[in-house]
Amino acid sequence: MQHLDRQVIEQALKWSQQGETIWLCTVLATFGSSPRAPGSWMAVSQEGKHIGSLSGGCVEDDFIKRLGEGEYDRPITVTRYGDPDDTQGAHIALPCGGVLEVLIERLLSTADTQEHLATLLATLDGHHRLMRNVNLSTGEHSFSEDATLGPRVVRLDGQPYDEQEHDRQDVVQMRIAPARRLIIAGISPISAPCAAFAATLGFEVIVCDPDEAACADFAVSGVTVKALLPSLYIASGACHSATAVVALTHDPRIDDLAMMEAVRTPAFYIGVMGSRRTSTARAERLIRSGGLTEEEVSRLHMPIGLALGSKTPAEIALAVMADIVRVQHGKTINEL
């Protein structure tokens, strides 16, 4: 299963290459409760087909209806959903009670549009990190290098975009980073529920195991299965900064080799299953026999997962994915 962001941009590029005008919609800001975070995308073709989402369905239906009535014919529009005080807004009350501010870009089928979308797609595939710059007055768009962390949608001064709290600037910036990926090293009873949870959360999921029979029997919808040593796949350049790697087999031949390769990558989360005693022994083994440094071993989350008292495979998988999400959002254990 591809990450939703990648699906949106890939399909938008296909529509553009087929000669269609597309509308790329981006959530700029949210106020109160909202179903989608800033930076979320939806793409709509001139035939009314759409992919991605801005809400639970009400915003999408209203947008497509208004598009069919000839609205949004300008290169760029900023509109609000859920704000009763906005006389220019869409007058749609969101079930969650929140407010969405949405950027709507009308992108003609041109070489410039297709090059722009192709750059977005390459960024989501992990080739690099970029800042996407959009002029809210003219609709002009460009890219600049970005190696920073922070909110996905920001103003030129680096602060989160919030139209309510500042005079609207001409340019809004959107951080574009690789789509989230989970590599599961080895097939065990934990692997299937972990893959299923991750896919539901929007991760691209790849499961690797050298046992071809186990790979053939692994059936989780939308998950890529590769019959090879996880360490070989990781060493091939499969990890980027939005990748998590988890080893779930209790087999040192799979788990240790995967960890030895994963610490050489920019993966944001690397974890391996085992008790505290097993984890201590593994750390010593990785330093003594694997040649890792103490700093490299300190990157490993072991024992893996949040301490939820998990016993069943599904509970352990839940603890693993909860810990990955925690790290992804920069939360410490003490903040939970």
TrEMBL record:
InterPro entries: MoCofactor_Util/Proc (IPR052698), XdhC_CoxI (IPR003777), XdhC_Rossmann_dom (IPR027051). Residues 182-324 form the XdhC Rossmann domain. It comes from Vreelandella neptunia. This is XdhC family protein. Residues 15-67 form the XdhC- CoxI domain.
